[in-house]
Amino acid sequence: MNIEIITQPLHLTIYGYSGVALNKDYAGMAFQLMDRMWKTIHENEIKNKGLNIWVYEADHKVFAGVELMEDLQNVLGLESKHLILTKYASYKHIGSYKLIKQAGLKMTAELKGQGYTTILPYVEIYGHWTNDEAKLETELLMSLQ
Prior knowledge:
Blueprint: E1 4-6, E2 10-20, H1 26-43, E3 53-56, E4 61-66, E5 79-85, E6 88-94, H2 100-113, E7 118-126, E8 137-144
Antiparallel strand pairs: 1-6, 2-4, 2-5, 3-4, 3-7, 6-8, 7-8
């Protein structure tokens, strides 16, 4: 597993919707939020970078969003979230979305074995869609203490 430790801050501003993952159904909640966000984006022809970004936070909170082409405020009810990751681990998962949870668990274990402590938020940035599951790319970003 090729994990990169990054100490240069990452600033990320995304627009979308937040919710709480009932019964720890993080993916289910994130999909609901993502579908709602894309509906708003498409109906209002909001220019965006096209990558789904899911943020997992304390208290089972989930945020599904996208970066916009320009920073807008109060975009038709979309919530905004500005993240600053000061120290984090990055891993590019290539393959089926079904294997992301397993990749995240393996990443956490490897980081722990290297003496790192992961903290929230945890971020998944989904690459552009392809029908070939073997070519799907998802960047996993784990904040480090």
